[in-house]
Amino acid sequence: MFLIELTYKGPFSEVEPFLAEHLAFVDKGYASGHFVASGRKVPRDGGLIFCKASSKAQVEELMQDDPFVYQDLVDLRIIEFVTSREQKVWPD
């Protein structure tokens, strides 16, 4: 499992024009079965995505389609972790 952290490099007003395209990217991640949870951080300086993938390289490749990433609007951090407990609230 991976935690993807996106942190805006500038004010939200610079990111907002790309928000609809970013949300379409996120929807695509859910449809493919890679994304299992996502949302904005509080305070709103970026967001988090929980991602199922086979490798960090796969996550890095997936994220290249995010307009926030390819427009260089965010700092991207990918954290791999091994779940020791997981409640089955999302479909496999």
TrEMBL record:
Record's keyword terms, sorted: Hydrolase
InterPro entries: Dimeric_a/b-barrel, YCII
Signal peptide limits: none
Alphabetical list of SUPFAM superfamilies matching this protein: Dimeric alpha+beta barrel
YCII-related domain span: 1-80
GO MF entries: hydrolase activity
Domain of life, per lineage: Bacteria
Record-stated family: Belongs to the YciI family.
Designated name of the protein: GTP cyclohydrolase
Lineage per the UniProt record: Bacteria, Pseudomonadati, Bacteroidota, Cytophagia, Cytophagales
